[in-house]
Design a protein that fits this description.
Elements (H helix, E strand, L loop, with lengths): L2 H19 L4 H8 L3 H8 L7 H10 L4 H16 L4 E3 L2 E3 L7 H10 L9 H11 L5
Helix pairs in contact: 1-5, 2-3, 2-4
Length: 135
């Protein structure tokens, strides 16, 4: 398969994952983004290659900025190239489609008070003290 088709499929996968994570239907996402349900479905299936303007509309409808959407796509591309689980500071980052890594890590970091964690060692200690599970 060529690179363009791979990118189309990756974009579609990320849009679908984020839509499902927010419990939106294709129709609801289309309405929020000002796009037809059919077009959103084609994007999710990797059949259409969305323009930058369409990606901006989808990102906004998903409550993301463009940088976040592009970051999710980059993570998906990396995951395709290297599908093994990645170890990060004592816990396994999920690589399942229904739980994007950025979201899980962001959720953990948002639990912290300002200044609570000043080093990687402190962050590890924090995780151990909370007995966090990422399931």
């Amino acid at each position: 398969m060529d690179t363009m088709a791979d990118l189309q499929e990756t974009i579609g996968r990320v849009v679908r994952q984020e839509r499902q994570y927010r419990n939106l239907t294709i129709k609801e996402l289309g309405e929020k983004a000002g796009l037809s349900e059919i077009y959103v479905g084609e994007i999710e299936r990797g059949q259409k290659y969305p323009s930058a303007k369409v990606l901006e509309s989808l990102a906004q409808a998903l409550g993301l900025d463009m940088a976040e959407l592009l970051e999710l796509m980059a993570e998906e591309i990396r995951r395709d190239r290297e599908p093994e689980y990645t170890r990060v500071i004592g816990f396994t980052v999920p690589t399942t489609p229904d739980q994007p890594r950025r979201t899980v890590i962001k959720r953990i970091v948002n639990m912290l008070d300002d200044g609570e964690i000043e080093s990687v060692a402190n962050f590890s200690a924090f995780l151990l003290s909370k007995h966090l599970t990422l399931s």
